């Protein structure tokens, strides 16, 4: 069974707690990949991995039940918001990406 088929099977058979676990697992993997790509100076691949991590964190945030979750759901919301802010692209990374993907301006 391929890894994507295995993941699909896990998702389809998962209860809500397991779904959250799967999301956390893949967010952690995406952040790890982003760090590896940054170390390799592969900014486009790093950006793709960061975007994936942000999308997963966004799904976790959207799944919070603020009506019934009380203070705990608010605490998770702050945690997710902080992590999304943390992984936004920094100006120095933008310029590294720009240099890697664009030809230098004519002088």
Number of helices: 5
**Helical percentage:** over 70%
Mean pLDDT: 79
CATH superfamily: Flagellar protein FliS
| Protein structure class | mainly alpha
The CATH class is identified as Mainly Alpha
Catalogue the unreliable spans: 103-107
List the topology elements.
Blueprint: H1 3-13, H2 16-39, H3 43-62, H4 66-86, H5 91-101
Helix pairs in contact: 2-3, 3-4
List keywords for this structure.
single chain; 107 residues; mainly alpha; Four Helix Bundle (Hemerythrin (Met), subunit A); 5 helices; 0% strand; disordered C terminus
Structural notes for this entry:
The protein is mostly helical. The protein has one domain: Up-down Bundle (Four Helix Bundle (Hemerythrin (Met), subunit A)). Helices cover 81% and strands 0% of the residues. It contains five helices and no strands. α2 packs antiparallel against α3 and α3 runs antiparallel to α4. The longest helix is centred in the first third of the chain and has 24 residues. The chain is flat and about 50 Å long. The N and C termini lie far apart (55 Å). The C terminus is likely disordered.
